[in-house]
Amino acid sequence: MIILKYAADVISQLKKLRLTKSSTGFVPTMGALHKGHISLVEKSKEICEITICSIFINPTQFNNADDLKKYPVTLENDIYLLEKNGCDILFIPGVSEIYPEGTTLKKHFDLGYLQSILEGKFRPGHFQGVCQVVCRLLQITNPTHLFIGQKDYQQCMVIKRLLELENFNIELIISPTLRKKSGLAMSSRNLRLNKQQKEQAAEIYKTLLILQQKIKPGSLQYLKKEAEEYLITKNFKPDYIEIAEADNLKTVNQWNGLTELVALVAAFIGDVRLIDNILLKNQPVSIRNL
Prior knowledge:
The chain is an alpha/beta fold and about 290 residues long.
């Protein structure tokens, strides 16, 4: 694996490799890698001839300075995992390499209502920062395929919108969320949880499964309220529990039984904020073993 810190070197190295290889898969990360990230690398290797991964903790997508300071850093282990799993190039830029003119955002991306709902509502400016960094990284790596995980469901939709806005000819591959045996979605932020909190955090997925188990045509207001109250009894502080159309994230309060839905949750355990989601289907789901 080749490790590079400068955009010019990444562009030069990829130019050489592309003399004989035509497809490039890109996996952007903020480090603190886990099996979910590695699954994206593995998927890229299945599809593409070149796999490049980036590690960059993007300051412009943190609306909370303390959250940025506390974001876990495990670079040595990250490098080990990527090399072990066959990543070809690792790009580890500094802030000045991504934002040579400073971190004050120069461009506004038209994300429509995606910017003002759910994560957009509770993390003002977050998705503009995501778009700024992803756009810059795509300009540097110029991949044929972009690999991201479904756990950040709204972010997936934002990046899809970004590709359309900037006319990137890139295929977006969204991989399913990987989970612990308890159901807890794998996340870099889990490193900030103690053992007891990790056990508690699994209640988020149980809440989503309860929604999936109970979903039926008609009003969904009571169901959402019930899920919120359940999380509160488990000592969470929810930002939101919402049910929306899966293809556009428009809130659904009355369901026709046909439109595909997604349930989304954001909640705090102590000072750690976790998010998760699940596609909802009008059929029984077993939660007895979780």
